[in-house]
């Protein structure tokens, strides 16, 4: 059985006051959500604050990025060991915004995925296609290349301790959402691609949907057989919206 996971990606948003209010709201409203795992990924400066606030709660926390290197002269970077030092369980790797704005190609993302696991972090590996790629009919080719880069570097066993997040890039921050059938089709492709190498690992890997999931569409998306939760962007910045998605995911798989 795959435990649903709802992870909030706060992106580059927040102040001390806003973070305190958001975490307080999530903690106050999460009662009854027991089947789903819940996590938040704040910007680096707020990790210590989130760690303090969430100690002793069922809510996990993580980071939005990490360096490919373990330590050294890499000004401005943050290592996996540093994230572990602040109690992180998860780290997002390969988000489309990192790929698009900061030049992270499939090989860089695969290295980040590997270093995260080596330091006992659970990578949330983001994969997905742009609107132009979808319209060109190459969604599966694009996603396969993104998955294969990890398999080529680390082997399919990497997915035994990795979460995958499918994010149709055209549905991030646009208000557009893949239909449940569209999302399910790509989730099934991802599971099938991994199953080509190892069926048991494929059956266990959690695949999240990461394209404008909201309280009003979460239940329908999460009802799909291969959608195991959500990587939530904008809706994770409002406690009520985030809690609505958590409630929709609170169903044993």
TrEMBL record:
It comes from the Bacteria. SUPFAM superfamilies: Triosephosphate isomerase (TIM) (SSF51351). GO terms for molecular function: triose-phosphate isomerase activity. The keyword Isomerase applies. Gene3D superfamilies: Aldolase class I. Keywords: Cytoplasm, Gluconeogenesis, Glycolysis, Isomerase. The active site is at 95 (electrophile), 167 (proton acceptor). Its EC number is 5.3.1.1. The keyword Cytoplasm applies. It is found in: Cytoplasm. Coiled coil: none annotated. Pathway: Carbohydrate degradation; glycolysis; D-glyceraldehyde 3-phosphate from glycerone phosphate: step 1/1; Carbohydrate metabolism; erythritol degradation; Carbohydrate biosynthesis; gluconeogenesis. Substrate binds at residues 9-11, 173, 212, 233-234. Homodimer. Involved in the gluconeogenesis. Catalyzes stereospecifically the conversion of dihydroxyacetone phosphate (DHAP) to D-glyceraldehyde-3-phosphate (G3P). HAMAP family: TIM_B. Belongs to the triosephosphate isomerase family. This is Triosephosphate isomerase. It comes from Thioalkalicoccus limnaeus.
């Amino acid at each position: 059985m795959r435990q649903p996971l709802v992870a909030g990606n706060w992106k580059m948003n927040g102040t001390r006051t806003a973070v305190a209010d958001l975490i307080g709201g999530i903690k106050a409203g999460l009662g009854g959500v027991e089947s789903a795992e819940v996590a938040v990924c704040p910007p680096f400066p707020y990790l210590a604050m989130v760690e303090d606030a969430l100690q002793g709660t069922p809510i996990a926390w993580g980071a939005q990025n990490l360096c490919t290197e373990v330590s050294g002269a890499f000004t401005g970077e943050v290592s996996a060991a540093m994230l572990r030092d602040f109690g992180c369980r998860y780290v997002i790797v390969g988000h489309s915004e990192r790929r698009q704005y900061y030049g992270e190609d499939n090989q860089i993302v695969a290295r980040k995925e590997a270093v995260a696991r080596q330091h006992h972090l659970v990578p949330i590996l983001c994969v997905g296609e742009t609107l132009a790629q979808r319209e060109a009919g190459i969604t599966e080719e694009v996603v396969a290349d993104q998955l294969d880069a990890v398999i080529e570097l680390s082997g399919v066993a990497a997915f035994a301790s990795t979460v995958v997040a499918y994010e149709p890039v055209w549905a991030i921050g646009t208000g557009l959402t893949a239909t449940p059938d569209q999302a399910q089709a790509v989730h099934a492709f991802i599971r099938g691609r991994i199953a080509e190498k190892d069926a048991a690992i494929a059956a266990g890997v959690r695949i999240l949907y990461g394209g404008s999931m909201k309280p009003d569409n979460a239940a329908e998306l999460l009802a799909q057989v291969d959608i195991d939760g959500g990587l939530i962007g904008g809706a994770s910045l409002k406690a009520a919206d985030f809690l609505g998605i958590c409630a929709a995911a609170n169903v044993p798989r």
